[in-house]
Amino acid sequence: MWQAQVRVDLDAIRENVARLRAGTSAEVMAVVKGDGYGHGMVPTAHAVLDAGAGWLGVCTLGEALQLRRAGLTAPVLAWLLAPGLPLHEAIAADVDIGIGSCGLLAEAVTAAQLAGRPARLHLKVDTGLARGGATAEDWPDLVEAAAKAQSDGTVELVGVWSHLVFADAPGHATIDRQLTAYRDGLAVAERLGVRPRYRHLANSAATLTRSDTHFDLVRPGIACYGLSPVPGERFGLRPAMSVRARVMLTKRVPAGQGVSYGHTYHTERAGTLAVVPLGYADGVPRHASNRGPVQLAGRIRRIAGRVCMDQIVLDCGDDEVAAGDVATLFGDGRHGEPTADDWAAAVDTINYEIVTRFGSPRVPRIYAGDRP
Ligand SMILES: *Cc1c(COP(=O)(O)O)cnc(C)c1O
Question: What are the Cα distances from residue 13, in Å, to 8, 41, 227, 275, 372?
Fold first, then answer.
């Protein structure tokens, strides 16, 4: 018998990836960083590859090596690398590396010599996000140094890429500006003799709404998990994660009963409280106090009072509810339960953050759909 669980439907992930593939002629790099956005990186990776994604995208070297240790041989790109890391391990494991500075390029060259094989690199140009990547000013120097390393045989320039600022607003002016800046970056590379096999720019939102950003490879993350990157649109995706817990106990309380720490909630009338064993240690945002929606006994209820580290309380009034009943925090919404989108709206964040939070080792992740 289970107490609380995160259920991940791998069939939903496969369907979502198939849907994304059907909408583009580019190859698909499914982004599985952040433990597969909370869905479990390795099972997710198997599912997306089953569905025809050709690439896996992660941030850290650790994530990339974990995929390799799990026996996954598909191309992997890792793009968030601080100085001084053992890049030779990435190169030896056939992990592609995202490079946005001459400093990191120099490290990759040294690491390739140590590994005894060329480093496969994707050069990143900053087209306006002002996060990773070389600015337009620094870009020619980066490309030139990379081209020289390629002619020396220490690196192989596989990709040129960038990342969008505001793709979740499909008509936003930044998208056109970034496309222009990206094409300028490609033109500079071409002039310096660099013609990458893979040009890539699109995240989920751009994959779903802007085919002019697809180039050779798209990098959807959130859409693989069935969540929409564009508020108010579903794109036919099916959310893969649901979070549920069984009521630990119920009790009758009088009207005016203060509930949970600080008594920020008081019952309006006499009724039944249900205590649900999930709290902020498990991923429930404490900010969901008096806000987060939970389905229990056929109705959606707001959390009563503060979210504690380990539990929440629901005020069920006179409804029939008993210990052992299943409370659903969110799911795909087909049974009237709240969705990760509802949670994001309730706590003023994005669906990405809601699902990614539910990675606590004390809540078992249960996989539905065919296991690879
Ligand atoms: C996380 C990430 C993505 C995926 O973004 P989604 O909005 O989840 O599709 C793509 N590219 C980069 C560089 C990222 O960091």
Answer: 9, 12, 10, 32, 13
| Atom of ligand 1 lying closest to residue 37 CA | 8
CA of 59, closest atom in ligand 1: 15
Give distance in angstroms: CA of 31 to centre of ligand 1: 7
Q: What is the tens place of the pLDDT at every residue in 58-71?
A: 999 999 999 999 99
| pLDDT-based confidence at residue 171 (cuts at 50, 70, 90) | confident
Each residue's pLDDT tens digit, 227-282? 999 988 999 999 999 999 999 999 999 999 999 999 999 999 999 999 999 999 99
**Where are the domains positioned within the chain?**
10-224, 241-368
Kindly name the residue from 124, 261, 352, 367 that is annotated as catalytic.
Answer: 261
Rounded to whole angstroms, what are the CA distances from 257 to 63, 253, 266, 295, 319?
Answer: 48, 7, 5, 22, 17
Residues 6 or more apart whose CB falls under 8 angstroms from that of 156 comprise 118, 119, 120, 121, 150
Atom of ligand 1 nearest to the CA of 167: 7
What's the CATH fold of domain 241-368?
Answer: Lyase, Ornithine Decarboxylase; Chain A, domain 1 (2.40.37)
Architecture per CATH, domain 10-224, reads as: Alpha-Beta Barrel (3.20)
Catalytic annotation on 225?
Answer: no
Residues with CB under 6 A from ligand 1: 31, 33, 79, 163, 203-204, 219-222, 229
